[in-house]
Batch of 2 targets.
Target 1
Amino acid sequence: MTTTERQLDTADLTERVKGMYQEVALHPEHDFHFETGRPLAERLGYPAADLDRIPAAAIDSFAGVGYFLDLAAIAPGEAVLDLGSGSGTDSFLAALAAGEAGSVIGVDMTAEQLTKATDLAADAGSANAEFREGQIEEPPVEPGSIDCVISNGVINLSPDKAAVFAAAAAVLRPGGRLALADIVSAKQLPEGVTCDASLWAACIGGAMQRDLYVEAIEAAGFEILELRDNNRYRFISDRADNATQKYGVTSISLLARRQEESR
Ligand SMILES: C[S@@+](CC[C@H](N)C(=O)[O-])C[C@H]1O[C@@H](n2cnc3c(N)ncnc32)[C@H](O)[C@@H]1O
């Protein structure tokens, strides 16, 4: 199922998304349609003491939309996959929770984000976190090898969300968890918004209607265990804010469990 099959030039979209997140990696101090960095992370609920334990430069380029690591409850020894890991904030926090006996693989398609996260992991001696180039619709990870898939602010950017949820189910062991924060909308967005690649790259244009988003996760073989609104997330440009007010574009965090027999 593609979200907007006829209207959106997905090749152009991919390049726009890469261009935007290249900027977020290299120049996080620039202005975007959305907030970035440590003040955002703290407002969303990331504990300051946890942020103090990971590379500050990763947090500078943090562009997540909600806190969900309490839902993920990553235990020592677990294998974690971060879909759209960006500069690595959630991956580094997950690596601390998984400990030396665990591991984290971050997957992202933007070269500058991967380079930044990889360099920071090396500098910090974070041996249990690695970053791989790939698409979240087809992550380069062994099927059934992961205990917990995490993702923050990314799946809304994919034109094929069903493929992302199916890929998450495929890499998880039976009973494994999917914990994420993402952007959804109360109403179906009109073409003027869904075909605006700049609004799409800013995490608005690709927002799926909330109930359809939940249905897509369930259709991939997950049971939703918890879902909450992240009222502290805001878009900041006027254009982005107008679209979000009009169509009820909001951030949610959720936890789902892969059923023993994935469909
Ligand atoms: C909003 S940023 C979030 C990054 C990170 N999760 C964070 O919280 O800072 C979205 C990230 O997803 C990546 N991305 C978007 N679509 C992708 C796709 N289809 N496959 C792989 N990576 C993707 C972008 O390159 C970018 O780094």
Target 2
Amino acid sequence: MSDYNWCHGTNCHTQQTQSRVRGSGDNKVLRTRKIKQDSEWIRESIFSHFCNQRCLMDFLNVHKDRIIALAPRRQPLETPIKIETEKYESYRYNYNTSERLPYQATRRTIIKNPN
Ligand SMILES: [Zn+2]
């Protein structure tokens, strides 16, 4: 395994930053950035192949149809939940009279793993 990857951003080599300037004399170029694979975090992250979020998004926009085809979703997913409804005393502010007016409010809490 090499100790770096080239950024996969489709326009990485066109962004005008000092970190991309390579070459000498009159033979200067803007080059795709190298990404060092020098930490566990970077090796396990999507940013092991993209130097920044812009390059990631450029790649996703160009290749989105093929990426989606890897795991197409034709139906929505669902997570079973339970809703707990609780009534409580709250206040609303009347700006015309500068009064706090009590009212019965409702708080709905989503319980994700009902058992
Ligand atoms: Zn890049």
